[in-house]
Amino acid sequence: MSRYNPLLMAFLALTTISLACNFGIRRPETLNEPIPVSSEAVDSLEDSLQGAYQQAIAGEPVTLVIDEAQLTSMVAFELQERGDVPFEDPQVYLRDGQIQVVGKMRRQGIAVTTRVVLEAEVDDDGNVHLNVVSANFGPLPVPDSMIADMETYLDSSFSKEISAMAPNTRIENISIENGQMTITGQPIE
């Protein structure tokens, strides 16, 4: 009777289990180091928003630049304040014309990495639209019906925020690159 090396058998078992658990599943790549969350970044964002508001009230062209740390911190503090949302550890990346929101969705003690990729566009009337390019819940894509609902909610929320931030302003452009989103607009005459 031949004997099997217990260490070799344990290694083969672990390898087989690992392959079986990961077969066909692509893990979302991490874009970079985690973006730090700070109250200073939120304060800086509030100052930028106040400046854009003052430009709009004065009838001047509006330029607002928001960076990843500001958005990530704002989302993190908002989630913390609400407390009832099962989304945690948000990271908001602003790269290559896209807004990527990554975090963990926690339900019944299980955490799954969630990623939503958005693109922002401005129509001929100056209305901003956020389009969901992709959305994944762990390795699974989010159903199209949920994506449509998400787009409707995001469009409405974002439009309200833009209108409040820059009243009587027509948004002309939103550009997203190198960790920053720049929103520009002109006064409505």
N-C termini distance: 93 Å
How is the main sheet built?
Answer: 5 strands, antiparallel
Query: What's the β-strand tally?
Result: 8
Topology as H/E string?
A: HHEHEEEEEHEE
Number of domains: 1
Number of helices: 4
Shape: globular
> Which regions contain 5 or more consecutive residues with pLDDT less than 50?
1-29
Mean pLDDT: 82
Radius of gyration based on Cα positions: 22 Å
- The secondary-structure class comes to alpha+beta
Multimeric state of these chains? single chain
Q: Hey, roughly how much beta strand do the residues contain? A: 35-45%
Order of strands side by side in the largest beta sheet? 2-3-4-5-6
Helix content: 25-40%
Lay out the secondary structure.
Blueprint: H1 6-22, H2 39-57, E1 62-67, H3 68-82, E2 87-95, E3 98-107, E4 110-122, E5 128-137, E6 140-141, H4 144-165, E7 169-177, E8 180-187
Helix pairs in contact: 2-3
Q: What can you tell me about this protein's structure?
A:
The protein has helices at 6-22, 39-57, 68-82, 144-165; strands spanning 62-67, 87-95, 98-107, 110-122, 128-137, 140-141, 169-177, 180-187. The protein contains four helices and eight strands; from the N terminus they run ααβαβββββαββ. Helices cover 39% and strands 35% of the residues. α2 (39-57) packs across α3 (68-82). The strands form two sheets. The chain has a five-stranded antiparallel beta sheet. The chain is an alpha+beta fold.
Offer a concise description of the structure.
With 189 residues, the chain is an alpha+beta fold. 39% of the residues lie in helices and 35% in strands. It has one domain (6-187).
